[in-house]
Design brief:
By secondary structure, the chain is an alpha/beta fold. It has a single domain (7-143), classed as Response regulator (Rossmann fold), CATH 3.40.50. Helix content is 28%, strand content 22%. The protein has helices at residues 35-46, 60-66, 86-96, 133-143; strands at residues 7-8, 26-31, 51-57, 72-78, 101-106, 124-127. The protein has a six-stranded mixed β-sheet, sandwiched between helices. The radius of gyration is 13 Å and the shape is globular.
């Protein structure tokens, strides 16, 4: 396992099936306070045939308000944001929508992650520098 790139948690909490919208692909929400990263992530998603950008927001609070489980399959969640951070937002989103796959993202090395990251309900952690079509596809396939 690539400890810096792919660190799965909570395999016992993963749903048996994760939503995939027929003929539309995997709908992905991006939650990050940096507009440039949201834009880069949108370009990465556009490069994957079966993934589409469902929406974006810049705070944990707006993620909780805007993200529903209606066809959304994956949420890419930044850990460090103003206001409610990604760990707390992930906990609340997963409690309300247990079928959503949440990947925590940051520029932290795995050993520098807050302890709460491991038990917030996220499927895994992905270092932002390693975001790629291949890795997102691998995460999705591993969860299914």
């Amino acid at each position: 396992m690539e400890s810096v790139v792919y660190t799965p948690w909570c395999a016992r909490d993963r749903p048996a099936t994760i939503a995939k919208v027929a003929d539309e692909g995997v709908r992905v929400w991006v939650v990050d306070d940096q507009a440039g990263f949201r834009l880069a992530t949108a370009a990465t998603l556009a490069a994957i045939d079966d993934f589409i950008m469902a929406g974006e927001c810049e705070t944990g609070e707006s993620a909780i308000e805007l993200i529903s489980d209606g066809g959304v399959g994956m949420v890419l969640m930044d850990i460090q944001m103003p206001g409610m951070g990604g760990i707390k937002a992930t906990r609340r989103i997963r409690a309300a929508h247990p079928d959503l796959m949440v990947l925590l993202m940051s520029t932290y090395d795995v050993e520098d992650l807050p302890a709460a990251a491991a038990d917030c309900g996220a499927a895994a952690y992905l270092h932002k520098e390693h975001l790629s079509p291949a890795l997102l596809t691998r995460f999705w396939r591993a969860a299914n």
